[in-house]
Amino acid sequence: MDLYILRHGIAAERGDPKYPNDDDRPLTEEGQKKTLKIARRMKELDLAFDLILSSSLARARQTAEIAASVLGCKNKLKFSRHLAPGGSKRELVHEFSKRKRVLLVGAGEMAE
Predict the structure, then answer these.
(1) For strand 2-7 and strand 101-106, is the pairing parallel, antiparallel, or unpaired?
(2) How far apart are CA 58 and CA 40, in angstroms?
(3) Distances in Å between the alpha carbon of 21 and those of 12, 13, 24, 44, 84?
(4) Closest CA to 96 of 69, 111, 112, 77
(5) What percentage of the chain has pLDDT greater than the value 70?
(6) What confidence tier does 112 reach under pLDDT thresholds 50, 70, 90?
(7) How far apart are the C-alpha atoms of 96 and 63, rounded to whole Å?
(8) How far apart are CA 67 and CA 4, in angstroms?
(9) Global pTM value
């Protein structure tokens, strides 16, 4: 299996009063542009995935959606609560263990 990990793009600052719930912090305009640039470079490298598995946190979701769109694999994009803070590593591995090439998009540290 080939496993790729993509950290979310630049997001609104933690503690921004516009986003009292940290899960809702979106990518900034710069974060969107840089994520698009990275996704285009991934395409130039002919990267293709059986599955793009993302945290459902806003910033990770946006990052994954940009990547999936550029790579032409929106139908392979899924969301997992196990990629969010407090997610289960064991359950996460179970979600993608039978795939050949996987891109994980995350937004935070996972619990042990």
Answers:
(1) parallel
(2) 21
(3) 12, 12, 6, 36, 14
(4) 77
(5) 95
(6) very low
(7) 19
(8) 12
(9) 0.92
Three state DSSP letters for the chain: CEEEEEECCCECCCCCCCCCCHHHCCECHHHHHHHHHHHHHHHHCCCCCCEEEECCCHHHHHHHHHHHHHHCCHHHEEECHHHCCCCCHHHHHHHHCCCCEEEEEECCCCCC
- How many angstroms separate the CA atoms of 78 and 51, rounded? 7
Tokens representing 45 are 């490298």
User: Are 48 and 58 in contact, with CB atoms under 8 Å apart?
Assistant: no
Q: Which two tokens stand for residue 89?
A: 């590593």
Question: Rounded distance, CA 101 to CA 43, Å?
Answer: 14
Structure tokens at 29: 């305009």
Site of tokens 């196990």: 82
